[in-house]
Amino acid sequence: MSDHPRILLIGSDGQVGWELRRTLAPVGQVIAASIGGETGPAIDLLDTASVRKAFDDTCPDAIVNAAAYTAVDRAETDYDLARVINADAPRLLGELAAEAGIPILHYSTDFVFSGKTQRPYREEDKADPLGIYGETKLAGEQALLDSNADALVLRTAWVYGVRGSNFLLTMLNLFRERTELSVVNDQIGTPTWSRMLAEVSAQILHRVFIGDLTMERIRGVYHVTSAGATSWYGFAQAIRRASGSTCELTPIPTSEYPAPAPRPAYSVLDTSKFRSTFGLVLPDWRQSLDLCLADLPNRA
After folding, report:
1. CA separation for the pair 298, 173 (Å, rounded)
2. Three-state SS for 152?
3. Is the whole model's pTM more than 0.85, yes or no?
4. What is the DSSP code (8-state) at residue 121?
5. What is the set of domains in the chain, with CATH numbers?
């Protein structure tokens, strides 16, 4: 491994990818691939030749795939596109990583589970997604692991940050526009700050590069979220309190907020395997929310 490893970052414009540009910078040379090629090599996950060319042109020492089709509702009628990005692309990236003998880090989701339980999900629990988004993300996990690459799959949940489309920014915008809102109170999960996820990812890769961790020992699936759990209503309350908004919030059941894609009612992930393997502390979701809000220039 070189003293300054080359990291091919795919999905660098997304919530997690944008944070990874910064957190990976001290670890190695970040090659941020994007569709338009504005920040690095052009890459189109819908085009196998484009993916192979980006890989061959950059000769990376590791791949970080933060790209995903995350439009949960739209995926129900856009299966082909969701499958290509969430399942076929990870399969190809895994094959390329295996051929080159380099590690690959990939992100997945709590939506691989149905939510029909009342305890945090462990990595070995049966995956049984309710919709197309979860189905294609699960297929991507399996394809990547079947590629024989040195792969790390980090399942996370309820990701939010200072950019992109997410619950935090949606709530802050609505708090400015409305005096009252109804928010679902019977879906339970863990809000996870994109920067926290990017920071722990960078720490893991750094330790792999310096030889503190071997991929042979750590390859596989891990659950990585903030600590604790809440409902969307509880998350909204915390955002309102921290932002100083006076918008009135009303809890409602999922049945009063119908959506094309079903959501897991309970998708808290057990992170004990991650914590014991890597020795990293995952902060409480409320602590991360406060830190994230401090980064926003114009709070509600």
Report:
1. 11
2. strand
3. yes
4. B
5. 6-165+192-228+267-283 (3.40.50.720)
Distance CA 24, CA 27 (A): 5
> How much is the average pLDDT of 177-191?
96
Q: Burial letters for 234-245: b for 16+ Cβ neighbours within 10 Å, e otherwise?
A: bbbbbbbebbeb
Give the closest residue to 167 by CA, choosing from 77, 87, 263: 263
Instruction: Spot the catalytic one: 69, 107, 133, 233.
Output: 133
pLDDT range class, residue 278, cuts 50, 70, 90 = very high
Query: What is the rounded distance in angstroms from the CA atom of residue 239 to the CA atom of residue 245?
Result: 8
For residue 133, indicate whether it is catalytic: yes
**Rounded to 5 degrees, what are φ and ψ at 121?**
-75, 135
Phi, psi of 136 (to 5 degrees): -75, -35
In which region does residue 11 sit, left (phi positive, over 0), alpha (psi from -120 to 50) or beta (all else)? left
Read off the amino acid at residue 178. R
- Paired tokens of 161: 């940050």
**DSSP 8-state secondary structure symbol assigned to residue 253:** -
Closest Cα to residue 66, out of 13, 29, 26?
13
Phi, psi at 245, each rounded to 5° = -70, 155
The answer on pLDDT for 298 being more than 60 is: no
**Amino acid, res. 260:** P
SS3 content of the chain, % helix, strand, coil (to 5): 40, 20, 40
pLDDT tens sequence across 5-61: 999 999 998 999 999 999 999 999 999 987 765 667 888 999 999 999 999 999 999
User: Which residues neighbour 10 within 8 Å (Cβ) at sequence distance 6 or greater?
Assistant: 17, 33, 43, 45, 63, 64, 65, 66, 67, 93
